[in-house]
Structures are given as C-alpha cells and as structure tokens.
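FAQ: What does a ligand-bound record look like?

Like this one, built around HDD:
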Amino acid sequence: MAGHRHDAKDQQLEHDRTDSTEPLTTDTGVRVEDTDNSLRAGARGPTLLEDFHTREKITHFDHERIPERVVHARGAGAYGRFTPYEGLGDLTAAHFLSSSDVTTPVFVRFSTVAGSRGSADTPRDVRGFAVKFYTEQGNYDLVGNNMPVFFIQDGIKFPDFVHALKPQPHNEIPQAQSAHDTLWDFVGMQPETMHMMMWLMSDRAIPRSYRMMQGFGVHTFRFVNAEGRGTFVKFHWKPLLGTHSLVWDEAQRVQGKDPDFNRRDLWDSIERGEHPEWELGVQLVDEADEHAFDFDLLDPTKLVPEEQVPVRPIGRLVLDRNPDNFFAETEQVAFHTANVVPGIDFTNDPLLQARNFSYLDTQLLRLGGPNFQQIPVNRPVAPVSNNQRDGFAQHRVHRGGTSYAQNSLGGGCPVTAGEGVFRHYTERVAGEKIRERSASFGDHYSQATLFYNSLADWEREHLLEAFRFELGKCEELSVRQKVVAHLNHVDHGLAVEVAEGVGVAAPDTEETPNHGRSSPALSQDNSATGDITGRQIALLAADGVDASDAEALRARFAEEHAHVEYLGTRDGALHTRDGGVLTANRSMKTVGSVVYDAVIVVGGPDSVAELGKDGLARHFVTEAFKHHKAVLLAADGRRIVEGTPLAGRFPGAAETTRTTEGVVLAPAVDDESVAEFLRIVKSHRHWDRETSSVPA
Ligand code: HDD
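The answer part, i.e. the structure of the complex:
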C-alpha cells in the first residue's frame, strides 16, 4: 500500500488491523474444518440446529448492513496530514494551528448528497468535503461542502429540504437527481434557496475529480485565542490542481461507463503516489466589523466576497493513504460539527446550531449507540478519560470502583484540568424567546446575481442549460413558472431564457434590476494551475500503429504525471508499424471517451484505416470533441475524422502544426506538436468550440 505511514493515527490503527492469515475459525476462535457444507442428518437430509458454524456465519451475514447516511450516503475517503504554514497563536489557541512544526493526521471523506450508497459518483449534486483532524487536543471536524453557501437559513427546514430533494416517497424515483418536481417545488416556495441553486446549476455540481474541488466550511465560525479574543472565520480549501468540472452530457454518460469515476480517481491517484493536495485559507473578520456587510455573517446562504475580505492561506492538506477497509473506515467514520477543539468555536448561525444537534443524533442510530467514538477510525489520538460507561459494544475495560464525579474514593479521577481545556466563547446574548428570523437574513437574490455576474460566458451557458434540463424534467408547469419568477429577481435575461427553454411564460418586465457587481474569485474560468497530475489521456491504436510516436507521447506526459493509456481495437498485443509489439492497456470496448481527459490518434496508415472502420473509435473521437476535450491528431491520425460528424470541420490539413477549436492537427509527433497538445490539455477544456450540432 502506497502512502505515508506511522503518524500517530496510523500507529493507533495498527493495533486494529487484521489480515486473516490464520486458519479459518469461528468468531470464538474455534478452528473450522469445512465451511462449504452445513451439518446434516445424512448427506441428503435436513440441516441440524446444532451446526453453530453455519448459524453464526449466516447470522453475521444477515447483520452486515447498517443504515446508510440519510444524506451524503455515497462517499470515498482517505487519510492524510495537515500542516500549517506558520503559527496562528495570535488568532486561535488551537494547537494544530500553533506552529509549522505541528503536523496533524486527518481523515477526509468526500461525498455526493442525494444518492444512496450505491449510486453513481457524477450526478448533478453538491459534494461533501468533511475533514477530521486527529489533533493532540482531540478531534476537530470541519464538515464542509464544495460550495460556499447552503440551501436554507435555519436547520429546522433541513428535513423538509431533504425530503424534497430525495426520491419521491411513493415510488422512490428519481435516484440521485435534483431534476424532479418536489425539489423545485420546494425551491419555488423558499426563495432563500436561490443563491445555492445557482451554484447547484453551475459546473461546480459535476466535479471532474475530488482532487479538483474547492471546499468550504460554509458557516462563519470563530477563532478564539488564548486570551479569549474572538475573530470570525470562514474556511476555504483550494485544490492545487485547480477547480475543474465535467460537462453535463459527459457526467450523465460516466454514470454508466464508470459509476465509481470520482472514487476510483481518488483511490488510484493515492496508490500511484500522486497525493492530492489542498491549501487551507481563512477569511478573517474582526468582531468589531460584524455588521460591516450588506448581509448577515450568520446567514449560511451568503458568502463573503474575496474582494471584500481576502483569503489568507494558512496551511496544506495532503491525502496520502487509502483506507484498508471501506466499511470499517469510510463507512463508519462519524463527523460532527460540534467536534471542536480549544481555539475554534461556533457562531449563532441557526443552520450550524441545528447541525450541532443532528450529527451526534444521526451517529447514534447509524452506528448503533453511544460508543461510536471508540470505532478505530473515529478514535482520537488524544487520551480519552471520563465517566461515560457501558452501552452497546463498549470496548474499553474501565478499571476502578468509581465512575462518578465528584468522588473521593477514586482519588477524584478523572480530575478536570485547568489548562488546554475547551472554554466556550464568552458571548453576551439577550433576547425574547421568539420564532422569528432576523430581517438581516431577508435578501435572497443579491448574491445569486453576484454569482451569475461572476461567471465566464461558457459557465453561464452551462448554468442556463442546467436550469433548462432540471426544470424541463418537472412535470408541473406551475413549478417551472414559480422558479422562473424567482430567477427574474436574479437576472431578467436569465429568467427569460430559462422560460423559453422550458415552455412557460417569460416574464415581461424586470423584477429586480441586476446590480452589475461581480466577484471574479467565484468563477472556475481562471483556476487552471497547469498541474495535470493524474489526467488520463487515451491513445487509440490498432495493428500498424506508430509505436515510437505513442511511446514518445507517453514519456512526455509521464513527466507531467499524466497517463497516456493505449486503447486497442482489441486487448493485448498490437503489431506495430515497425514490426514490433505494443501492448494495449485496454480494449476500447471496455471504456469510453468520457472517462478520459484527452484523446490522441497517431499513424501509421494501417492503424488509422482500421480505427476508421471501427464505429467505437470514430465515436470516441467525436464524443471527446463534443465534450470540449483536447484532441491530438498526428500524421495519418488526422484522417480519423473522415467518416465522422467532424469531417470537413478542419479543412486543409496543413504541413505545419495548427490548432483548430482545441484540436491539434500535426504532420508529425514532434517537439512542436507535443508542446502544443500539452498546452491544450493544461487548459482543461476548450470552451470556444461549437458542439451542439455534433451528434455523439
Ligand atoms: Fe450535513 C452529513 C455537510 C447542513 C445533517 N453533512 C453531512 C456530510 C457533509 C455535510 C459533508 C457527510 C459527512 C460524512 O462524510 O460522513 N451539511 C453539510 C454542510 C451543511 C450541512 C456543509 C451546511 C452548511 N446537515 C446540514 C443540516 C443538517 C445536517 C442543516 C441537519 C439539521 N448532515 C446531516 C446529518 C448527516 C450529514 C443527517 C448525515 C450522515 C451524517 O450526518 O453523519 O446529520
């Protein structure tokens, strides 16, 4: 297993790992001689009740399942480490942020929200980004998402929101999809959802990879330093690989070609030693500036524009070790927003307050009782010492005769400490007991507009298409109409275009004028970092392929930690043009262009002629083109487009390398054409390409 071992958490887990190398036994350790035949009365007779091995084996199997998470059921996780760039003692008493010499083990779980545990990885959905820091002062959980705001302002609505989002109760349709009447009915009834719906309809909802997602703590939290001074803080995770997405048509197809697309990508990258990294950043707001914004810092449907409060980078997260067992670790990991350490505290955000109840509550059901913190993945590396006792599956053997405080008989143990303790932030609160929301939470549209204004043209185009797709799936025209009415407060032009796409009346007049403000940091457009680690590039090949060209490309991309895979018209050995052999990594039949980032076709003539006869190969190139991917057609490879819907699109194949619509056409695989193709791959996708007419 690749990865970084021997941090404090890893050492602790070592005691729990088991390899089943001993001969087969029952759960009580009794050796078993035969596990294929139950004990019967005669070879053809009934099975006997006294066959404890059969009964135990089947009973255990019958009890293997636990309730899946009510939301975020589908996920993937990994271990890693977090190191701050510098000590932040002036801001927070948190030890794990106290010095660049402190490295803290972490477990991170990424997830989709709506789908069941067995659903696909690439629906249009929010992605969870939950980080458990095993700090020396106890576990700290930062349970965030890949979008910086949330659907609702008060946790009391969460059950309603989730009921609306999840499959409908009478027929459990649709699975893992927001495109249905009940969600959009909820949205129509709750304008506070509009800002988040803009994010959900943007490409953020279909990340290319967990490694290429931003993460956000969403709420405003509070740093508290040793003197008890508080500072408001918003948390941001920024991926070193940039923030990149799939396109919607591709995302839908990936669900069939590889439902484990994001999970596999995370796993494989860690196994290959290409460890995903994020930078943690914070936006800090002095308490004195609490009311300096035109929104409420306690409102989780709002973000703090980075142009107003810059993000200060404070540390680095690296994921470097896959779990040993999915169920034991990724399934049983229990996050909880109230798992905080000294130096980090809450605010009165009503969504956060509800979460602080919900997460503990859900783990009690999901993990079967109050001892879930003793499950290996959840166990802190900090010592645990208290009078909590008993309960189902108690694993500790507490010694001594006293389990209460205060006691004198047990020497007063465990005593309360004076130092390193969690002290709740001293905040003066006063108010009527009242079910009412602050008027400062009342603006539901301005930031939705801000987000819309901040997008690049292609992002806006995708967002429009997403609204049309989703609302177009709603059966009730009244639902479509209501959402359009809300969009008219966000941007009139958008509302009209959505309405036209989904067959409802477009609003005649502008409801709320677009304020024209934007925040460039909200766009994914400029996020490419040039780091293409882990990108998958398909090279299509048949008998007669120019092996030296293929190998040159593979070698060059390997330098960038990107992977050129040879996809053959069949699996195994291909005869090369120069009489050698090139081994295909896979047969084209087992994959599809949608699981690759770019595609290459090189010569020689026989290989290209054979590929040209193969519908799959022609479709592969056309589909990659449709999904805006980088394409290199070199030497005879340029002829692959003949007989595809792309024929005639690149007239006059020139004698020099040239790029048309993100397709590199080159007379040869040489330094120039490879460099040009690399440049195109690094830009992630070529958006200035008209693809709506391409049938693929
Ligand atoms: Fe939640 C899981 C993120 C609001 C109640 N949530 C869960 C997970 C993530 C989030 C990443 C998966 C954790 C894991 O991998 O195990 N949730 C968020 C964010 C929110 C949010 C960023 C808003 C800012 N959640 C939210 C509210 C409530 C919940 C308002 C309830 C009042 N969330 C839950 C839960 C889950 C959960 C029911 C399901 C499984 C679990 O907790 O462990 O308690």
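Follow-up question: can I read anything off the structure? Yes, for example: Residues 456-517 form a domain with the Hemocyanin, N-terminal domain fold (CATH 1.20.1370.20).
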